[in-house]
Specification:
This protein has 204 residues and is of the alpha/beta class. Helix content is 45%, strand content 14%. It has 8 helices and 5 strands, in the order H-H-E-H-E-H-E-H-H-H-H-E-E. Strand 4 and strand 5 form a beta hairpin.
Length: 204
């Protein structure tokens, strides 16, 4: 593991050389405008993708970028971001070729993680008619990756945390994006919400 410590020291030294006050400014405050909810995939590093420095992006990651109403970890991150950090944007970002999504609709058992991925299986089952024209597995997986992002955006909007923020007039937008590992580019899925009347009444 020595090479990781060596890399860390080299990184810290370069940061200080570029900006002698870099770390002192980081210590002084955390003031991001964005919460990023993304996949744990090691090829999808949140800060690097959008070119933001440490302190500029608050991040939560899990397998297949899920927002589940009983996941206290994710909900705690959202609450802290919205109520304490006062972020203005929550970005749910998936990626094409997501292994979690692919595993969810495969015919093989993957052990404990199958329980987590049941949420994607449910989504696939509800939307199965929309896959009738999928020519191959890759197309099917990528379409489901997009659908999963939109579903998680909805789940974010349905939380009492976001609902309460909107009710008190807090500026907050929730966005759905997807990333392609093949070209390094983000795509907006046009799933942006910023007001409670955009959410079904049962969730308000």
């Amino acid at each position: 593991m020595k090479h990781l410590f060596d890399s860390n020291r080299a990184w810290a030294k370069n940061k200080k050389n570029d900006d002698p006050e870099f770390f002192s400014k980081l210590v002084a405050q955390q003031n991001p405008d964005y919460l990023w909810i993304g996949c744990s995939d090691s090829r999808v590093p949140a800060n690097q993708i959008v070119g933001l420095l440490p302190g500029e992006l608050f991040v939560h990651r899990n397998v297949a970028n899920l927002v589940i109403h009983t996941d206290l970890n994710c909900l705690s991150v959202i609450q802290y971001a919205v109520e304490i950090l006062k972020v203005k944007h929550i970005i749910v970002c998936g990626h094409y070729g997501c292994g979690g999504v692919e595993t969810a609709i495969s015919d093989r058992s993957s052990g404990f993680i199958d329980n987590w991925l049941l949420h994607i299986k449910d989504l696939y089952h509800r939307k199965r008619s929309e896959f009738s024209d999928s020519e191959d597995q890759e197309t099917k997986v990528n379409r489901l990756c997009e659908m999963n992002v939109v579903a998680q955006v909805n789940n974010v909007c349905h939380t009492s945390i976001v609902q309460d923020a909107w009710q008190r007039g807090q500026e907050l937008q929730v966005h759905g994006w997807i990333y392609s590992i093949k070209d390094g580019l983000l795509r907006d899925l046009n799933a942006t919400f910023d007001a409670p009347d955009q959410v079904p009444a049962v969730y308000r």
